[in-house]
Design goal:
globular, transmembrane, 3-stranded mixed β-sheet, membrane, two-stranded antiparallel ribbon, transmembrane helix, cell membrane, mainly alpha, 66% helix, 7% strand, ABC transporter permease
Length: 430
């Protein structure tokens, strides 16, 4: 990065001097990953052949399985990874920013090498379509939660209550879809549940100036206890009538659903997944291309300046936090209307905090936060696949893999980014 720093000349005039800063974080991260893969392939060598299953039974176009020699492929890909790492080092040394393509290509190749090592001489093959389908399915609630977190923090309110919005949304969706027999009614109920939690968060943090993080944590505990109580007192005794929601079925898009590999993953999904595509596009477009997005970002960055041009800061924060709660509530509906099929106690299992981590890792940008959520979903599904393949990695490490990725992502990249300047700070009009 190049910045301008003031300096004083001999005649007393102030001049601007160019200061260059090297960014080593990406190069160091890729270097560490390359060393870990090298040690894995060296200390735990696996020979034989690795098979990747590219075809999918639901697709009309079937692709043959691809088999590769495990050892040669792993070491060959590792050489390419080392070259990409050297590229990142050279960019850092030359004061250049590395393009986003490099870490993406590195990540894809590293995962391919790791899966080749894991599937070597295994009885099962790597189902590429199934791996991607499962990763997307596990990412859907995280994406909705991350979008809600992005909107909340961009407008100046830290949305720690995503977990509570998930839970109440899931409970409301299960209850209303069971009573009415209509999953769309359950989806609307989930959005209302998310708005209720967001309403309380906004009221205490904006109107009564309570610390936003504390309010969010208290709301999570409150909703966890409330839904747990209602589950035991209401849903368990009446399980067949109140906890058997009608679920969304898959809708395959003609032609697109027949595309090899990605067709069954992206275009043979439920209504909520298609709604996710639209929501991500609308939030990304609206945040940077509309008057609403400009006002929202202004309130989150410099509320005093926004107030001087006639923007009602606290009103804007209140309604946008409510919108964020509605979006997060859709993520809660996914648990009961698509994934599980009924509500269970504490079924979200802390995914609201993973969604909040995706917001930070995604630099408070809807597209980047979506990609971060997809990364966490892929790590979760990869844990299941590695268990099936019977890798020598301990099962305890497999269980901690998604959370390990979360910690590395936030700890490794959060230090070089800056969130909205007024996030977490109440605005008192002078």
């Amino acid at each position: 990065m190049t910045t301008l720093a003031p300096s004083t000349a001999a005649d007393g005039t102030i001049q601007l001097a160019t200061v260059k800063v090297r960014h080593w974080k990406l190069a160091i991260s890729l270097g560490i990953a390359s060393v870990l893969l090298f040690l894995l392939f060296l200390l735990v060598p696996r020979g034989g052949v690795s098979t990747f299953r590219l075809g999918d039974p639901s697709s009309s176009i079937q692709l043959p399985n691809v088999s590769v020699p495990a050892a040669a492929t792993c070491w060959g890909v590792l050489v390419v990874l080392v070259l990409l790492t050297a590229w990142a080092v050279w960019d850092a040394w030359s004061y250049r920013r590395t393009g986003i393509w490099l870490p993406i290509v590195y990540g894809v190749l590293a995962i391919f090498a790791f899966l080749t090592w894991a599937a070597a001489s295994a009885d099962a093959s790597v189902p590429v379509t199934g791996l991607l389908f499962g990763a997307l399915s596990l990412s859907i609630p995280l994406i909705f939660g991350a979008l809600g977190g992005v909107i909340g923090e961009r407008v100046g309110v830290v949305n720690v209550a995503i977990e509570g919005q998930f839970l109440l949304g899931a409970f409301s969706a299960a209850l209303l879809a069971s009573i009415t027999g209509n999953p769309f009614v359950g989806l609307i109920g989930a959005m209302v549940g998310g708005v209720l939690v967001a309403f309380v968060l906004a009221a205490f943090s904006i109107k009564y100036l309570v610390d936003q993080v504390i309010v969010g944590v208290v709301l999570n505990v409150l909703v966890t206890g409330l839904t747990g109580f209602l589950y035991g007192a209401l849903l368990v005794p009446n399980e067949t009538t109140l906890n058997r929601p009608v679920r969304f079925t898959r809708w395959e898009i003609p032609v697109l659903g027949d595309i090899p590999i990605i067709g069954p993953v992206l275009f043979n999904q439920t209504f909520i997944v298609y709604l996710m595509y639209i929501t991500v596009a609308l939030v990304a477009w609206g945040l940077y291309r509309t008057r609403w997005g400009l006002r929202l970002r202004a309130v989150g960055e410099h509320p005093q300046a926004a107030d001087t041009v006639g923007i009602k800061v606290n009103t804007s924060r209140f309604w946008n936090v409510s919108l964020a709660g509605a979006i997060a509530g859709i993520g809660g509906a996914y648990f009961t209307l698509v994934s599980v099929g009924q509500f269970t106690k504490e079924m979200t299992a802390g995914l609201g905090f993973i969604a909040l981590a995706a917001v930070i890792f995604g630099r408070w940008d809807p597209i980047r936060a979506t990609l971060a959520a997809l990364l966490f979903g892929f790590a979760t599904n990869l844990q299941n696949l590695l268990t099936v393949l019977g890798t020598p990695i301990p099962s305890e490490f497999m269980l901690m893999l998604p959370y390990l990725v979360t910690i590395i992502a936030v700890a490794g990249f959060a230090g070089q980014i800056r969130g909205p300047a007024a996030a977490g700070k109440p605005y008192i009009k002078g």
